[in-house]
Amino acid sequence: MSESLTLGDRLRIARRTRGLSAAQLANKVAISPSYVQKLESGARKATPALVAALANALRFGQEVLTGQPYYGEPEAEDTVHAVIPELRRLLLCYDTPDELGSAPRPLPVLASEVDQIAALRRDARYAPMGPLLPLIISELTHVALSARDREQRQAYRQLARVYRAVNSLAHKMGHHDLSNTALERVRWAADQAGDPLLQITAGYLVAGAMLRQGAYTPARRKLLSLRTELERMQPEHSFTDDALAVDGALLLKLAVIESRRNNPEGANTYLREAEEVARMAGNRDSLAYEMSFGPTNIHIHDVHALIDMGDTEQALARLVEWAPNSSMEWTPPATTVGERSSHHHIDVASAKLTLGNRAGAFEELRRARKIAPNHTRFHPSVRETTSALLRLETHPTNELSTFGIWAGVSTS
After folding, report:
1. What distance in Å separates the CA atoms of residue 295 and residue 285, rounded to the nearest whole number?
2. CA distance 322 to 331
3. pLDDT per residue over 72-119, tens digit each?
4. Whether the Cβ atoms of residue 380 and residue 409 lie closer than 8 Å to each other
């Protein structure tokens, strides 16, 4: 059986480790002592913003509270976590790599495989993606270090994309040290590639890491600086479609920051501005620079922001408002990348549980699992929602119990 500690258990242990009472911790994060007690007992769930605030107040990394990385199941150990040590070594030796046993494959062949890796990353298929990473990092590194001019820039561009895949895998699996190293390598490779939009994308990823650590002010400042740089790059505001996609992604990240700061007006302003950028780009969902920007992702962020700020009723009302008819709820189209779509269902599961809709919450978890099982299985919110469902059900169904075992949640 996998580890059975909940976030509440870990919070209580961390608080006692720091020698704080519930009242003292509550004062540090501006909530009531009874709320801390409800979090520790599992009677309330912590939003991502609150998890970040609690971790910062306790001077621990968020993984101490979420319990990441999650080990214990063959699926995790054999196909995902097993590649982590080799990736750490490769990223450490990024500019002085080991010798290859044979010549690297031609760059067009490597670029084609990077396209495959990028697609796996977008669909959160980490298990098949992980084993592909070490070899292609080694080959691209040798090509980039030995090539010249255009070929060298292209090699670094592909290397930046692979490093981004490492960042995603490491972050989602809970290996945050490797995730941060991968971000530095993305920035390094983007600089070497000489692609301004790729450099802004690298900065966007760093701002996302800041956001996850609760560093909202530095993240906001960085994103605004990136938007200023993007404006400077585009003559007379004549943004290309690629630049619009990047700008839209920056706006959505800014909206998330404002929601984490519990600033509804600020979040709404950025979301509406993102809608205007999407209209300028023809209201099409785009994968330019792997940003997944467009009307669908704006809807997903709109709901996410409301849930982040605790307005779950309004978040679920939006899903009905956007639906084709009143008997349905809006869901991302089947063409939406798996990581974004599954994240949406995980958010909605948490919101439905908050409003007491246990059956609806479990159905959302099942949808997320069907779309992106790797992402769903290793997501901290899934574990917390599943744990709450199991605790609330006097006699859990076999399906819920089986899901709990799959997600690594104790059913005892």
Report:
1. 6
2. 9
3. 554 444 567 889 999 999 999 999 999 998 999 999 999 999 999 999
4. no
User: How far is CA 291 from each of CA 320, 340, 394, rounded to the nearest angstrom?
Assistant: 26, 11, 43
Cβ neighbours of 28 (radius 10 Å): 15
In angstroms, the first-to-last Cα distance of the chain is 10
Helix (H, G, I), strand (E, B) or coil at 286: strand
Predicted structure pTM score? 0.89
> Token digits for 352?
């439905």
b (16+ CB within 10 A) / e for 66-82: bbbbbeebebbeebbbe
Q: Which two tokens stand for residue 187?
A: 């920035």
- Give the burial class of 276: count Cβ atoms within 10 A of its Cβ; 0-12 exposed, 13-18 middle, 19 or more buried: exposed
- In whole angstroms, give the CA distance from residue 369 to residue 376: 5
Spatial separation of the C-alpha atoms in residues 174 and 70, rounded to whole Å: 7
Q: Is 186 exposed, middle or buried (0-12, 13-18, 19+ CB in 10 A)?
A: buried
